[in-house]
Every structure is written in C-alpha cells, then in structure tokens.
Amino acid sequence: MRKTILSIVTALAAVASTLVVLTGPAQAHGYISSPPSRQANCAQGRVANCGPIIYEPQSVEGPKGQRNCHGGLSQFAQLSDESKPWPATSVGQNVTFNWVLTARHATSTWEYYIGNTRVAVFNDGGRQPGATVSHNVNLGGFSGRQRLLAIWNIADTPMAFYSCVDLQIGGGGGNPQPTPTPTVTPRPPSPTPTVTPPPAGGTWRTGTYYATGSTVTYGGATYRCLQAHTSLAGWEPPNVPALWARV
User: Fold this and answer.
1) What is the pLDDT of residues 43-56, one digit of tens each?
2) CB under 8 Å to 81, separation ≥6 — which residues?
3) Cys bridge to 110: 5, 122, 131, 169, which one at CB 3.0-4.6 A?
C-alpha cells in the first residue's frame, strides 16, 4: 500500500514539475521597448503575422546561452524570421537601450551582441533591478544595418530573456558625395501651426498602445504616459510609475 501511495505522489510531483516548465514563459517579464525591439514592433502592430508574441512581448524567456531572437522557444520563432520587414531604427555610435520589466528578477548580467561579437556587458551582481533599466552601449566599429541581440541573464535560475533590435547605425555607414546646394525660391512664411496636447485616451485598458504624453483615467485619477508601450495586465498606471505619472 505504501509503495502504491509513494508511486502516486511521485507521479503527481512529476506532473507538477512539467506544468511549471510549460508555464514558465507565460510568467516571463522583460523586453526592450526603445529603440523598439522586434517583439515591441509586433505588439504595436508595426510588423504583421508575428504570432502570440503580440500578446506577451515580455515573454521571450529561454535557457541561457541562446544566440537567437526567440530564446529557443518555438512559439516565438517568427522573431528570428529574417524575411519579415523588420523596421530598423537610425542611431549613432552610442545608443541607449531601455528595458521594461514587469517582474524584477535578481540579475547576474546584461549582454549585448552584434553577430558573434559581444559589444557590451553590464554586471548587476545578483541585485534586483528597477521597473525600467537603461544601458548606454557604444557601437563603434559597426555601421549600416545591424541586428543587435540583448540578453538579460537571471541570477537565481538557468533562464534568460532575449530581445533583438534592428538598427541602422550611422545612416548606413557609407561616404556619400556632397550634394550641391539647391537654389531656393523664397516663399511667404507658413502660418505657425497650433500644437494640440495629446488627447485623453479615456479609461486605461489592456492590449492598447499608448504613446508618450497620452493620458488615461484609472481608479478616478488621471495619468500621463511617460514611455510608449502596449499595456498588459499588471501594468495598471498606479503599479508602474516608470510608465505612468499621476497628473
């Protein structure tokens, strides 16, 4: 009888362990919001047919040591599809990468790669990061269109978060010939346009893209967006001061 009970308990433990592994990615919590990463572009509708990543851009969590955009997760494989029209952000030699974290896991290191070259590493020594993290990375020696892979290595698990960013470094890296100065015909000055502040976005909702400066109401209070993002459950304005400021 005892052997039967022990066998049942062992089987249940194995099932529970499997469920934890299977549900791990859904609990993942971090991606680069600017310059927009591939998952950010998917979540904001800038790239079509991205699959389930549009609902959970923060969920690219896979074993450490991956060198792909989808963290080795088959459900997010489209992030590594180079045939997609990924927008490239024009940048200079120094770029600040901004992470949005919905769970502040203790961190060992942050790594940045272009191809097989690690261009930067930041060591947090196991500390817990804030709700947002920024790193300034020098991309000297690279030019033109490049795909940068950023990796957030968790300190107390064998997992990491992956985020790819497409960049156009230095305007393409070429040496164009000087363009002759065109002859300009004077025209009457145009009237000064009236600048209208961003309209109120109504009540805060999940699954909605909010631009920097837009405002929403939540819990009877008004909040202004500090950083463009697509809202997710758990990112209610009072909970993420890095994204929203009460007006």
Assistant:
1) 999 999 999 999 99
2) none
3) 122
Question: How are beta strands 117-123 and 215-218 bridged, if at all?
Answer: unpaired
Structure confidence by residue, pLDDT tens digits, 84-120 = 999 999 999 999 999 999 888 899 999 999 999 999 9
Residue 121, strand partner residues: 111
Burial of 219 per CB tally in 10 Å (0-12, 13-18, 19+): exposed
Sequence-separated (6 or more) residues with CB below 8 Å from residue 48: none
Name the pTM for this structure: 0.64
Domains and CATH numbers, the chain: 29-169 (2.70.50.50), 208-246 (2.10.10.20)
